[in-house]
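Feature request, filed as a ticket because there's no other form

It would be nice if the structure record came with a short human-readable summary line next to the tokens. Right now we just get the raw output. Example of a typical job, pasted below so the devs can see what we mean:
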Amino acid sequence: MATSQNVQLFATLDQITPDDLRRTGGKAYNCARLKQAGFPVPDGIVIPADATDDDLLLLTSHPWLAQQPAGTRYAVRSSGLGEDRAADRLARLII
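Raw output as currently delivered:
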């Protein structure tokens, strides 16, 4: 579980670039863009779409998590890569 492999696989919102859009999805990418532009977006770490179960085991040793104060509570936001497409938006449905 090398730290360098860990850092390359998972990215913080400050590290996301336009090249990461396909791996991170629209929500994480746009949160990253807003945070990088100075908007008040809570920091976070992004698990890419191509991460495997074995990759997820590396997450617990990521330096970003080690920098968080003891007792820090986290919110988890998950989404599918394609759920932001117009044809797939459930929020637009009126029942």
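Something like this underneath would help us a lot:
The CA atoms of residues 25 and 81 lie 5 Å apart.
Residues 90-95 have pLDDT under 50 and may be disordered.
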